[in-house]
Design goal:
single chain; alpha/beta; Spore Coat Polysaccharide Biosynthesis Protein SpsA, Chain A; 7-stranded mixed beta sheet; 3-stranded antiparallel beta sheet; 7 helices
């Protein structure tokens, strides 16, 4: 099977290299063929990552970075895939998923959409990242979707303005992508059909990034992002 006929799955690794063989095994069990593209943010683990990739049961590729530039790095990988693929699937290195994950994501895909499992709508007047409610029904509209557990129209990653995110926010790439796709480009954000579970190991960056995400939410609202407003509520009711 050619590389173009496999669904590209993108992830970063940094502090969970030990989980990479397990992630590859999960992808090898999928009922739709996939390939994995890894951005390694941990230069000290380069040799270990290379060994895992070399022994992968599916086609797998890695880009090594000399320093940790955060999860925004995934967008550079996706940009390199956009010419050959309509859809790109993203996972985090702490996610567990069943054998239908890839096919469920492709079934959720649509042009000019971001469709993710970690999907939320912000409450009216929200000023903090936590003032939001989970979207539970597949394909229902959302204000924000996490990149881990996302399927995206790959064309978004060919747009130079997407890469104008301030570097201080590169570790909260999900906020920027949701803002850019929904507000700047007018794309639809919605809940995916796919399901995941977290494999908690106390390395979760969300435990420390909450304040940064709140600062970014306020920054993006000043730039016009209408989440938590009557305008956003009207959009959700009509979509």
């Amino acid at each position: 099977m050619t590389q173009q006929h496999r669904v590209p799955v993108v992830m970063c690794t940094w502090n969970r290299v030990s989980r990479l063989p397990h992630t590859l095994e999960l992808l090898a069990e999928q009922d739709a063929p996939a390939s994995l593209f890894v951005w390694n943010n941990n230069r000290r683990e380069r040799e270990r990552v290379d060994d895992v990739i070399a022994a992968s049961p599916i086609p797998a590729h890695v880009v090594h970075c000399r320093r940790n530039i955060g999860s925004f790095a995934r967008f550079y990988v996706a940009r390199s895939l956009a010419e050959a693929h309509d859809a790109v699937v993203f996972i985090d290195d702490d996610l567990e998923f069943g054998p239908s994950m890839v096919s469920d994501q492709i079934a959720s895909f649509g042009p000019k959409t971001l469709t993710g499992w970690w999907a939320f709508r912000y409450r009216p007047g929200a000023r903090t990242y936590g003032e939001r409610d989970r979207v539970e029904t597949p394909l229902e509209p959302a204000d924000y979707v996490g990149v881990g557990g996302l399927v995206a129209d790959a064309r978004i990653f060919t747009e130079p303005r997407l890469f104008e995110c301030p570097r201080r926010y590169w570790f909260v790439d999900d906020m920027w992508l949701s803002y850019y796709a929904g507000h700047v480009r007018g794309w639809q954000l919605r809940r995916s059909r796919a399901e995941y579970q977290f494999a908690s190991d106390y390395h979760d960056l969300d435990l420390t990034l909450g304040p940064t995400k709140t600062r970014m939410l306020r920054y993006l609202k000043r730039r016009g992002w209408a989440v938590g407003s009557s305008e956003a509520a009207a959009y959700g009711a009509s979509t």
